[in-house]
Amino acid sequence: MFGRFVVNDKSSFKAWRIYAGFTREDCARLFEVSRQTVDNWEAGKTKPPRAVFLCLQIYSRRLDFLGEPWEGFRFSKDGCIESAEGDFIWWYEVRAIKHLYAAAKMERGEILHNIRSKNGLDIYGIKTTEKSK
């Protein structure tokens, strides 16, 4: 399990830097800027380029920045995607999914429909009401 870090445009450079595991010196080297520039970003004196935030989001291994359905998901260091609840799938399992469907003699759409129906979820993972099922 890992800590929750809410991602939004109001998140500070410092928060992202720390979450990604970088020192100020690391960021200065990575983004090819002076240490003073990094200090200015942290102090809010200047705003870092959007590309800097995107890089920090990627380096943090969090997937929250992809949108609400991905909130709480992350890439682990050992090659899997993990949910906030601790569920995970390995990279090689993703590649094997089509073979699992074939072994179950079911189409992907049929399996997804069954999962969504069982959990009361629509295609976007939003709870449906009894009337809309």
Task: Tell me about this structure.
By secondary structure, the protein is mostly helical. It has two domains: 13-86, 434 Repressor (Amino-terminal Domain) (Orthogonal Bundle), CATH 1.10.260; 89-133, no CATH class. Helices cover 44% and strands 6% of the residues. The chain contains six helices and three strands. It has helices at 13-20, 24-30, 35-43, 50-59, 91-103, 108-119; strands spanning 74-75, 80-82, 88-90. Strands 1-2-3 form a three-stranded antiparallel beta sheet. A hairpin with a 5-residue loop joins strand 2 (80-82) and strand 3 (88-90). The relative contact order is 0.10.
Give the topology, please.
Layout lengths: L12 H8 L3 H7 L4 H9 L6 H10 L14 E2 L4 E3 L5 E3 H13 L4 H12 L14
Antiparallel strand pairs: 1-2, 2-3
Beta-strand proportion = 5-15%
The CATH topology name of the largest domain reads 434 Repressor (Amino-terminal Domain)
Count of individual domains: 2
Instruction: Return the CATH class of the largest domain.
Output: Mainly Alpha
Structural class: mainly alpha
Index terms:
3-stranded antiparallel sheet; disordered N terminus; 434 Repressor (Amino-terminal Domain); elongated; 2 domains; disordered C terminus; mainly alpha; 6% strand
In short:
This protein has 133 residues and is mainly α. It folds into two domains: 13-86, 434 Repressor (Amino-terminal Domain) (Orthogonal Bundle), CATH 1.10.260; 89-133, no CATH class.
